[in-house]
Amino acid sequence: MNATTSKLTTLAAIAILAMSGRPATAGIISLDESASSISLGETVSIDLTVAGLGEFVAPTLGAFTAEVLFDPLVLALDSITFGDFLGAPDPDHGAGVGSPFETDIFVTQTPGSISMDELSFLFDFELDPLQPGSFVLATMTFTGAGAGVSSVDIGSPLFSDAFGFPISLTGINGATISVASAVPEPSSVVLFGLGSLFLLRIARNRHAALSRHVPNQDGSGSIRSFAGQVSGRA
Asked: Is residue 75 domain-shared with residue 105, that is, in the same domain?
């Protein structure tokens, strides 16, 4: 089974589970940023968080799909790291304890968009002890790519619990990141100021020296007088 077929299978499974007839559980998903303002070239991390479910008891999250939208002229995606609250996403996770079949994860990236899909293969009694009432699904790291302000929003979220029943979302909270142009370091500002004062002093001294050698109105001047004094001494 290739990656495309596997992803379609996963999405179909999430959709089928979410259309079950059981009353929906309520949840809240949020994007929590490590900083709301950064400078050009600096990094910021944003957590995709789910809350409002059981505290190590049902209901627990069994699958989700979500799209994160941002301005690619302001932010550039560096990396995505998934949590292990739906099962180990890596076979080497937990010193080899994890299983490659605990979760199925797919990430699709386009300019200004990240699509994330995760489906857990664990049973409800295996997921319950893994999930607190609020936890991080994935952490995204961005770099400030251009000066400006970018909203970071969640689009087309679809969540289901450990039994495959839909989780209705009572809150979908995005984030806003401001990227400022690089500010000169304090030491650079001080050096620039000292250099400006030095040049100003040189200019003033030169102006004063020229003023002392300006000819008088009668045609005599300090320059000629000084020259005469030198010739007289010779």
From this structure: yes
Q: What is the CATH number of the domain that holds 78?
A: 2.60.40.680
Rounded Cα distance, 168 and 154, in Å: 15
Same domain, 133 and 224: no
Phi first, then psi: give them for residue 169, nearest 5 degrees.
-105, 115
Let me know: does 169 contact 50? Beta carbons within 8 Å.
no
Structure tokens that stand for 104 in this block: 């199925």
Which residue range is the domain that position 84 belongs to? 3-180
Mention every residue, 6+ apart, whose C-beta is less than 8 A from residue 21: none
Contact between 150 and 179 under an 8 Å Cβ cutoff? The reply is yes
Q: Read off the pLDDT of residues 44-91 as tens digits, 9 standing for 90 and up.
A: 999 999 999 999 999 999 999 999 999 999 999 999 999 999 998 765
